[in-house]
Amino acid sequence: MRNLSTIISKETCLFYGLPGTAILAVSLILSCKVGNDFGGSTFVNTVSFFGCNALLWLLYLVLFQYLPVDLMRVWSSKTRPNVTEAVGTRIAKEQVKHPVATVQPMTAEEYKAHCAEFERKKQEEHQLLVDSIIDYVGRMMSPFIEMLELDLLRNEIRAWCDNPNYEPKPVKLKSVHEHRDKLKTVSFKHFVWNIAARLGFENGYSGKVQAKFIKRLFPNELADIEVISLERSLTSSPDDGHIKLDRPVHTDNYIFHF
C-alpha cells in the first residue's frame, strides 16, 4: 500500500484541497440559487450541485494544468528548429574551416617545370618585342646611316633592350648633302622614346635613361644639348622631323606605326 503521507502531501493539498474547497462553496451557492428558482426541489438542488462541481473542476484543470503545458509544448516546438539550424550552420562552417581531404604535395619536378615554363614564355614575349624593335630600327635609320654603322646601331639597341643601363658605342650618320634630309634633334628624341615606351618606363627606361643613351649613341649630333634638356623634351613636337612620335597601344605594344 502507498504511504498515507505520500497521498496526503503538501503539494496534493495545494493542488486539490484549496481549489476543491472553493469549488464546493461555489457549487453549493449556485445549487441553492437554482433550487430556489425551481421551488426548493431537492432533486434540482442535487443535480445542479454535481453539475456545477464537475464543470468547475473541469475549468480548473484546463486553465491551471493542461493548458499551460500545451502552450509550453507549442512554444518549444517553434523555437527548436532555429536552434537546430544554428547548430547545423556552425557545424558546416567548422567543416569548411577544417576540410577532411588534403592536397597531394607537389613534387620538385613539377615545381621546376612550372617555373621553367613561366621563364620560357617570358623570354618568348621579350624576344618578340626585341625583334619588332630591331626591325623598326632598320626601317627608320637605313636612309640616314651606312650599312656597317646600321648593324652597329642595331646591336647597340639590342644590348639596350636587355639592360636599360647599358652604355652604347657611338654611331656615325652618313653625310647628307641636302639639309632637309638630315636628322634633326627632335627625330633622335622621338626615336629613343618610341623604343623605350615599348620596353616599359616602369622597367628602368625612364626619361633620364633615354636621354643619356641617345646622347652617347649620337654624341656628335647632340653635342650642344644637355641631358636634362633632352629628358624634358623627349615627346615635344610629336609630328615634326623624319621620325614621328609613335605612342604604343596596350593591345599592340609590339607594333610600330610607320
Q: Can you give a write-up of this model?
A:
This protein is an all-alpha fold and 258 residues long. The protein has eight helices and no strands. The longest helix has 56 residues, at 42-97. It starts with a helix and ends in a 26-residue tail after the last helix.
Flag low-confidence runs. none
Q: Looking at the structure, what is the overall shape?
A: rod-shaped
Spell out the helices and strands N to C. HHHHHHHH
- The end-to-end span amounts to 118 Å
**Which structural class is indicated by helix and strand composition?**
mainly alpha
CA-atom Rg in angstroms: 52 Å
The main sheet comes to: none
**Rounded average pLDDT:** 81
Strand content: under 5%
Q: Helical residue percent?
A: 55-70%
Number of strands: 0
DSSP helical segment count: 8
Question: What distinguishing features does this structure have?
Answer:
258 residues; mainly alpha; rod-shaped
Q: What's the structural blueprint in terms of helices and strands?
A:
Blueprint (H helix, E strand, L loop, with lengths): L3 H4 L2 H28 L4 H56 L10 H34 L5 H16 L22 H15 L7 H11 L9 H6 L26
Helix pairs in contact: 2-3, 4-5, 6-7
